[in-house]
Amino acid sequence: MHRGVGLAAAERKRHIALQYQQTGSALANSHVQQLSTQLSTFHAALTLFARNHARQIKANPAFRAAFFDMCSAINVDPLASTSISSRSLWSQFHVDDFYRELAVCIVETCYQSRGQNGGLIKLDSLAAIISKRHLKTGGHKVSQDDILRAVKTLKPLGSGFDLVQFGDCKFIRSVPKELNLDQSTALEAAQIMGFITQSMLTDNLHWDTSRAAAVLEDLLSAAFVWVDEQAAQVEYWIPSTVL
To answer: Among 18, 172, 196, 215, which one is least packed by beta carbons within 10 Å?
Structure first.
């Protein structure tokens, strides 16, 4: 008798556990389906929004940034291709040409100024230069956010273009050479006055003379800094801070 009661109780427990499992799976599947439906609805709404406001998105940097923020909220990249159509959200309305053209303009501008700045140009300066050029030809003003998004589209090409930051100052690097930690630290220190000296590195960072000299020589050979030998002590200036 006791054995039979124990077996029946165990069977009931297994049955209840199975019911819980089935109910949980059904709820999870329902939740996933609801999320999928909501995301599809949001994506359709974004597509409609892009269609109705394509001109404003292309012409107004602030409006364009707000549109991208809406896309990011539901994990949609307007510049990426979709699995359904193999076309980006913007390409469906011929708006993605803006970023392709901007990317080409960034490459041209960086290459033209590479002899002056060694391939390291301040982000705000680059945006100002390209905006001025666009406005002269009847184009649209571009923002720093636009520059960053356009640079992102260049990465799959292995172009070497990337964003680097020293302190609070952001630069676009157009050369594939990676900066090591010492070089990055020296350039960050140079943001304070626009230049760096060997003694500034040894006194403030407590580097030995050979380490400081080697870093400055590397930056100079890569054209990331210019030399002013007329000062009391040789100064190494960042070109983008004085141009």
So the answer is: 18
Strand ranges of the sheet holding 162-166, from the earlier edge strand across to the other edge: 120-122, 169-173, 162-166
User: Which is nearest to 212 in space by CA: 243, 182, 178?
Assistant: 182
DSSP tag of 84: T
Distances (CA, A) of 56 to 20, 50, 52, 153: 52, 9, 9, 22
pLDDT of 208-242, one tens digit each? 999 999 999 988 888 788 888 888 889 999 876 65
Instruction: Categorise residue 94: left if φ over 0, alpha if ψ from -120 to 50, beta otherwise.
Output: left
**Is this prediction's pTM over 0.85?**
no
Contact status, residue 239 vs residue 225, Cβ threshold 8 Å:
yes
Residue 84 pLDDT class (50, 70, 90 cuts) = very low
State the Cα–Cα distance between residues 78 and 87, nearest whole angstrom: 10
Q: Are 219 and 183 spatial neighbours (Cβ–Cβ below 8 Å)? A: yes
